[in-house]
Amino acid sequence: MNLFSNADAEVLAPLTSGWFLDHAWLIPVVPAIAFALIILFGKRMPFKGSELGVLSMLASLVLSTGAGYQWIQRVNSATEEQFVDPVIKSWTWWQNAGFEFGIGQHIDGLAVLVLFVVAFISTLVQIYSLEYLRGDRRYTHFFAALTLFSGGMLAMVLADNMMLLLLGWEIMGLCSFMLIGHWWEEDVNSKAALKAFFTVRVGDVGLLVGISMLYFAANDWTRENLDVSGFSIRGISAWALSGEPNSTVIMIAAVALFIACIGKSGQFPLHTWLPDAMAGPTPVSSLLHSSTMVVAGVYLVARLYPVFFVGLDIPGGGGNLIVIIGGITIVISAALAFVQNDIKRVLAYSTVSQLGYMMLGLGAGAWMPAVFHIFTHAFFKACLFLGAGSISHSASHHSFDMKRDMGGLRKVMPITFATWIISTLALCGVFPFSGFFSKDEIIDNVGHNGYGLFMIIALIGAFMTAAYMTRATYLTFFGKPRGASAGHADHSAHDAHDAHDSHDAHASSGPHESGLLITVPLIILSVLALSSGFLNATPFGESWERMKLWVEPRHSAFAPELHHAPFMWSKALMSLAIVFLGIAVSWVLSFRLFTKRDPRLVGLTQRVKILGVGHKFLVNKYYLDDFYEKIIVRNIAGPIASAAYWINQNILDGIIHKIASSSRLISGWVYRNIDQRVVDGAVNNSASFTKSVGTAAQPSQSGKVSQYGALLFSAAGVAALVLVIINT
Amino acid sequence: MIAQNIGFWTIAIVMIVAALRVVTTNNVVHAALWLVVVLAGAAAQYILLAAEFVAITQVLVYIGAVMVLFLFGTMLTRARIGSESDLNNTYKKLGVPVAGLMFAAMVVALSSSFGKEKIPDSPKVISTQEVSDQIFGQYLLPFWALSFVLLAAVVGAIVLARKD
Amino acid sequence: MFVNQFLFLAAVLFCIGVYGVVARKNAVLMLMSIEIILNSVNINLLTFALRNGSTDGHVFALYIIAVAAAEVGVGLGLVLLVYRNKKTISVDDLSEMRG
Predict the structure, then answer these.
(1) Which residue of B has its CA nearest to C78?
(2) Which of A26, A268, A382, A627 can pair with A329 through a Cys bridge, CB separation 3.0 to 4.6 Å?
(3) Nearest in space to B143 (alpha carbons), one of A521, A94, A316
(4) By the CB < 8 Å criterion, does C79 face chain B?
(5) Residue A49 placed within a domain
């Protein structure tokens, strides 16, 4: 088959490559080795292993920057319309009984972009953690897990096949569990870690199903045409676009994969783990929520875009699973952010909402803006989280409660305040901060590609984003200092993290600006939050759209054709107006509510019933957690048990009650009509008989393993009999 | 062929009786010893089925190692060496219909699918070399997985059983 | 020899094992019953290996033996742990799963 070799080679220029591109596989290998070294020797090193973590991340950053530079050269060496082949290297990992599993790298613009972001944010977060976790009792383990976590993400990003991708994906899941539960002595933290792990796990089932479906559906085709296995990302992409696949199969595979993304990227309805994951140390929240863990799901969609593109009929417009989930996520999580008092939780819901934008963009065919939003979001969200950490570290005694322990901090923490404001404006999408160039592009393109309704939802989301971020900013930095940040040593807030209390001596001297190890990463990130948008500044014309040139794959057998909305200032001004409206409304309300204590606003939720109900609904997170725990988990824990329970309650008990009541009737009749003393014994007997029947029927839910075993075996026996009878 | 049949039925009856004793006896140590008989019988059946290597492994692993484990387990949990009365559930009768049901299912399935089919008179005998070629060739992956399972079992058993 | 005579032997042993799992409440005895079940499966595998002249049955019989060894190791570890915590190995007393 000559289908995919360059048939018209005379038009195509030879592509350059380079050492960094060819050796990109080193990027995750370095942190993996560093992880092993930290675990083995970390405790004996002068800086307890943290230096290894930071150095390995720096090495990864250098390698991925080099790869990025050479990728840009490679793109420049191509002609205008040429598809820039990714740099693929693959080796056989293992083979067994005709199956062959590869390991290798698949470096294209998307991979290079995300590699760079991950390595960059990881480096800054590690530097920040040097200060933030100083004196922590599991300092070495923290750095080990953090390093492996980044390694897992990097491996996932450059994977050339689904198995390696799955490996990185799972490493990340495991490490996130370790990091969120870092202070596991506290019950809340270990619960949050478990919740994150299990919720993501629910989604991961979808990933396994999707991978196997794609393998079995695509393997023959990819072997024949491209000589790669059905796990290869390149092979799957080409297969999906070849028009070959059965539309039902690819649709189900896309849905299964998307379920994994829902779990990992905290989309509705599996978003509940993300805010709880705030229990981990702040650097972890920052890393998890800006560039790694949660982006993994978005990245998977972007990576296997042809599968989703064809499977969910993205160019069709109108609505598909991804845009619907993305749209719902934007609005519901933004609404939740309004009722949070914990600053990190506000940021967590804001992350969920921003991920919703990315998914919405991907689902609506706005691939490039969504990927660009990954890029810009990573910087400003990391900055916001690290800023929140800076406040709690230096001003509010490790409390994250905005209403109780913050306020008026703009004077004492000028650097944190400035970086926070820049990042907030970027998050809200104010021109010329970076969020404007990505988010506005998403909204614009969603409308352009025929998803009008979702464009309106995205605009509502933008309004809400501006409003809740203004509320959080007001509570944190304006008004009068309260609680811990006013200098009251509130030791109830201390208790939260006494695990790393040893350095509290300097924190209790009152709120102050954080040290250099914290502020320098903040400044770097805020500069990027301000400027990174210009890498793809659509408003200034084609020549500014560098990112599109470098990252977006040209239409070919491996990449679907993507459309771009022409930029219009009128639309941009409209969305800017909405954002400013959100800021203004929220500012006025916050000012009147929190500073003036306007009697018309204070206690509004108690006075107006509808608002109260809505507020309660939001505070309880739509009762989703209750729903999961009380309804779903219980039913999964014992579908047989609950069925047996129902039978027990309604049928057996009914019979027993009938027997009991009739025996009571009879005994009453006997009592009244015949001699009560003679029959006494008989009545007692019937009562004990009733009781014994009841006891015999009760054990179906006894918690005794052998009875469950008996139920299981007899169910298997019945099922086998039924099968045999059907087949004979 | 006659000799093999006699061998089969003798061993089979011994095995069934021994297995019944395992699940009915009131003495844990006796149960373990009856289990030895079942396992040895199984090894003999494997030889009848022309699987010497599996039979030898059965003797080594099961009768050698697993039984020792069982006896240690019995000893460490301080079960009395004599007979005990409370080894069974109060509702042990429940086991009879369950087992009967499964047996019925298997009888129906087996007799309808294999009926009077005989094992070929001169069957292809599998040599140990072929088995090892398979294990280290086509089935290498399960072998690796199994190695991990054993490793995990060792670690897990130590973690579970250590005192702390 | 009939194929079925081996298969029936395996079926009988399997059902005895099932009875043992259901009827016993001593955890060690339950594990023993599980061993009987595993062995009956092995007989099945080897019977079919002989009938079809394939090596697969042998390979999996060996794997099952190895898995059974691991299972007994972990199982007895669990039993010991339960014994230390509860001073009993009667599985009836472990009813935390009661619904």
Answers:
(1) B160
(2) A268
(3) A94
(4) yes
(5) no
Answer yes or no: do C50 and B92 touch at CB < 8 A.
no
Q: Where is pLDDT greater, at A15 or A217?
A: A217
Least CA distance to B91: which residue of chain A? A707
Give me the DSSP letters along A408-442.
-TTTT-HHHHHHHHHHHHHHHT-TTSHHHHHHHHH
Q: Does the beta-carbon distance from C56 to B134 stay under 8 Å?
A: yes
Name the nearest CA neighbour of A493 among A502, A485, A501, A484: A484
Residue A28 near residue A158, CB atoms below 8 Å = yes
Whether residue A703 and residue C99 make contact (CB cut-off 8 A), yes or no, is yes
CB nearest B95 (choices: A710, A720, A728)? A710
Nearest residue, CB atoms, C70 vs list B79, B103, B150? B150
CB-based contact C62 B135, cutoff 8 Å: yes
Burial of B162 (0-12, 13-18, 19+ CB in 10 A): exposed
Rounded to a whole number of angstroms, the distance from the CA of C45 to the nearest CA of chain B is 10
Residue-number span of the structural domain to which A624 is assigned: 603-637
Quote the pTM value.
0.68
- The distance between the two most distant Cα atoms of chain B, rounded to a whole number of Å, is 60
Please give the tally of structural domains in chain A.
3
- CB nearest to C63's CB, from B77, B84, B142: B142
B contact residues 94-123, partner C, Cβ 8 Å cutoff: 94-96, 98-100, 102-103, 106-107, 110-111, 114-120, 123
Q: How far is C29 from chain B (nearest CA, A)?
A: 7
Contacts of B144 in chain A (CB under 8 A): 94
Count of structural domains, chain B: 2
Residues B72 and B134 in one domain: no
CATH number of the domain at B77, please: 1.20.120.1200
In a domain, B102, yes or no: no
The answer to whether residues A584 and A615 belong to one domain is no
DSSP H or E run through A104: strand A99-107
Mean local confidence (pLDDT), A412-422 = 84
Q: Is residue A568 part of a domain?
A: yes
Which residue do the tokens 């042990």 mark? B92
Domain-located, residue A168: no
Spatial separation of the C-alpha atoms in residues A173 and A260, rounded to whole Å? 12
Question: Which residue range(s) make up the domain with B42?
Answer: 1-82
Residues B141 and B68 placed together within one structural domain of the fold: no
| Model confidence pLDDT, tens digit, residues C36-81 | 999 999 999 999 998 888 888 999 999 999 999 888 888 888 888 8
Report the candidate in A323, A322, A360, A356 with the shortest Cα–Cα distance to residue A337: A356
Residue A64 belongs to some domain of the structure: no
Q: What is the DSSP string of A507-543?
A: HTT------HHHHHHHHHHHHHHHHGGGGB-GGG-GG
A273 confidence band (pLDDT: 50, 70, 90): confident
pLDDT digits (tens, 9 = 90+) for A17-65: 778 888 888 888 898 988 888 888 877 777 777 888 888 889 999 998 9
Q: Which amino acid is at C73?
A: G
| pLDDT (mean) for B7-32 | 90
User: Are residues B75 and B2 located together in one domain of the fold?
Assistant: yes
Confidence of residue A687 (pLDDT cuts 50, 70, 90): low
Q: How far apart are CA A301 and CA A237, in angstroms?
A: 12
* Domain topology for C25-90: Helix Hairpins (1.10.287)
**B3 and B65 inside one domain:** yes
Structural contact between residues C3 and B2, judged by C-beta atoms closer than 8 angstroms: no
> DSSP string covering A574-624, please?
HHHHHHHHHHHHHHHHHIIIIIS--TTTTTHHHHSHHHHHHHHHHHTGGGH
| A92 at interface of B, judged by CB pairs closer than 8 A | no
CA dist A722 to A2, A61, A716, B115, Å?
A: 52, 61, 10, 20
Is residue A692 domain-shared with residue A624, that is, in the same domain? no
Q: Which pLDDT value is given to residue A497?
A: 45
- Please answer yes or no on whether C50 and B114 come within 8 Å at the CB atom: no
Question: What CA–CA distance (Å, rounded) separates A393 from A504?
Answer: 9
